[in-house]
Amino acid sequence: MKFDNPKIKSYTLNKETVAFYESAFGFERGMVVEEEDIVYYAELKSGETTIAFASYEMGKMNFDDKYEKITRKGNPVGLELVFVDDDVVSTTAHAVKNGAELIAEPSEKEWGQTVSYVRAIEGTLIEICSPMNG
User: Fold this and answer.
1) Residue 129 CB partners (closer than 8 Å, separation 6+)
2) Strand 101-108 to strand 28-35: parallel, antiparallel, or no bridges (unpaired)?
3) For residues 109 and 115, is the Cβ–Cβ distance under 8 A?
4) Which of 23, 83, 95, 125 would bridge 100 by S-S if both were Cys, CB 3.0 to 4.6 A apart?
5) Which residues of 50-75 are buried (b: 16+ CB within 10 A; e: fewer)?
6) Cut 0.90: pTM above it
C-alpha cells in the first residue's frame, strides 16, 4: 500500500495551537478554515507530511458527540506525534521555550537513538527523536 500526501489529524485546535506548532517546530501554515474568529480546521506542513488539526467542536460533530478532548491535565494519553530531528537536545529546548511542557529529558536509548518527550500546549504528547541508524 502507498498513501499519497499522508495527514496526521488531531482534534485539538484553536489559534494558539496553530501558533504553537509554527513557533515550536517551524511548521509552515497551510489551509485554514476559520469562521467568526473560530478555527475549525488547519493544516501545518512538514516536508511531505501534513499535520491536520480540527477543532474540538468538529470532533464532537464527526463522532456524534462521543469524543474525549485531549488536555494538559493528568498523564498524557497513549498516543503521540513523533518528530525526527538530528539535534534532539536543541529541538526539545526550543519547543519548551515556546510553551511545550517537558515530560522526559533527551536521553540516549540502548539502541543508539536519542529521545525526549514534551507535551504541546493543547495536551498532545510529542516524541522528539534522532533518526534510526540502519
Assistant:
1) 82, 83, 84, 85, 88, 113, 114, 115, 116
2) unpaired
3) yes
4) 95
5) bbbbbbbebbeeeeeeeeeebeeeee
6) no
Q: N- to C-terminal Cα distance for the chain? A: 23
- Residues 125 and 103 sit within 8 Å (Cβ to Cβ): yes
121 neighbors 100 (Cβ within 8 angstroms): yes
Rounded to an integer, what is the distance from CA 71 to the centroid of its chain?
A: 13
Do residues 127 and 82 lie in contact, with contact meaning Cβ atoms separated by under 8 Å? yes
The tens digit of pLDDT for each residue in 100-132 reads 999 999 999 999 999 999 999 989 999 999 998
If you search the block for the grid coordinates 480540527, which residue do you land on? 54
